[in-house]
Design goal:
Helix content is 34%, strand content 24%. The chain is built from six helices and twelve strands. The chain has helices spanning 2-40, 90-110, 116-130, 209-212, 223-231, 240-251, and strands at residues 46-47, 51-58, 66-73, 79-86, 138-146, 151-157, 162-165, 171-174, 194-197, 203-207, 260-267, 288-289. Strands 1-2-11-10-7-8 form a six-stranded antiparallel sheet. A six-stranded antiparallel sheet has the order 9-6-5-4-3-12, with helices on one face. A hairpin with a 4-residue loop joins β5 (138-146) and β6 (151-157). The protein is globular, with a radius of gyration of 22 Å. The model is unreliable at 275-292 (pLDDT under 50).
Length: 292
């Protein structure tokens, strides 16, 4: 009886381990497929002829809660960049990103020329109504670059400050303008859009908090000052996003405790507008490039 009981327990344990292994293998496959869908929402590196967009992304897990959306309008030449950081990590944060991606696509389809003020106001309303009741919020930065003039407009909703790396090596911040998305109702939320000017050769660098929160073996953060110092490097690298990510990884001791995303948008030349072009809203998808 004792021998039979031992064999039964051993057989049961082997069966449990085998089933657990199969479940883990299935889950791993599902996460790998989810990563493919998740990555497909991200834009490709883009060169419009007057501006260059690049990014580097390292999620803490297979998928994460950081996201960047790019929209380039062929009519006006304006470039719209939105960087979001959803509260939390992993699968739940990635599912929230998926919802925000759909909302961004809807906004751009219905209002292709939405300014940072307009877009962040609409995103805040969406998050406040549909996600805030479940304690889901996001920080974010929305930028609009006009390569016809070099004008840059932005809204920063509780997000780390983006920086402008001037062609002469000087670095200036694009500070916060409002609270995180979803914390206030549509009636209370005020984006407080700001504006500045950049010249050809200047680069806007934006990032999520995983970049500056990376810690070394002594527990010291890479910090926003570390990012500013890295952005002052001269001569400038070909790809700022890879350069900064490499600097963060050299500083980092052990595994990252948050998703890490850094993006850059460089004005390479001013756009000479065709006098026959009209800024009217396009009537077909050919006049609008979502740059995915």
């Amino acid at each position: 009886a004792g021998l039979s009981s031992w064999r039964f327990r051993k057989s049961r344990d082997n069966f449990d381990r085998r089933m657990l292994g199969e479940r883990m293998e299935t889950l791993g496959g599902e996460l790998s497929r989810a990563r493919i869908v998740h990555d497909a929402m991200f834009p490709r590196a883009t060169d419009t002829g007057h501006a260059v967009f690049e990014y580097a992304y390292l999620p803490m897990q297979e998928i994460g809660g950081d996201y960047v959306h790019l929209h380039s309008c062929r009519v006006t030449g304006r470039i719209y960049l939105t960087l979001l950081d959803v509260a939390g990590h992993g699968l739940a944060a990635a599912l929230t990103v998926n919802r925000l991606f759909g909302e961004l696509e809807r906004i751009r389809a219905e209002k292709w020329d939405a300014t940072p003020h307009d877009l962040m106001e609409l995103l805040n309303r969406y998050i406040n109504l549909t996600m805030a009741p479940y304690n889901l919020y996001a920080t974010g930065t929305c930028l609009m670059l006009d390569p016809n003039s070099g004008d840059l407009k932005w809204v920063n909703a509780g997000h780390p400050p983006a920086v402008i790396r001037r062609i002469n090596g000087a670095v200036t911040d694009l500070p916060g303008t409002t609270v995180l998305l979803g914390a206030e109702s549509y009636a209370e939320f005020e984006p407080n859009q700001q504006a500045t000017h950049i010249d050809p050769g200047d680069t806007v660098i934006a990032y999520t908090d995983g970049i500056f929160e990376a810690r070394d073996s002594d527990g010291r953060r890479f910090g926003i000052d570390g990012l500013r110092e890295t952005a002052r490097f001269t001569p400038p690298p070909r790809d700022w996003t890879r350069f900064i990510m490499n600097a963060v990884n050299k500083h980092l001791h052990g595994a990252s405790q948050d998703d890490m995303l850094v993006v850059s948008l460089q004005l390479t030349s001013l756009r000479v507008a065709d006098t026959e072009e009209s800024p009217a809203e396009p009537t077909s998808g050919a006049a609008m490039d979502a740059s995915r």
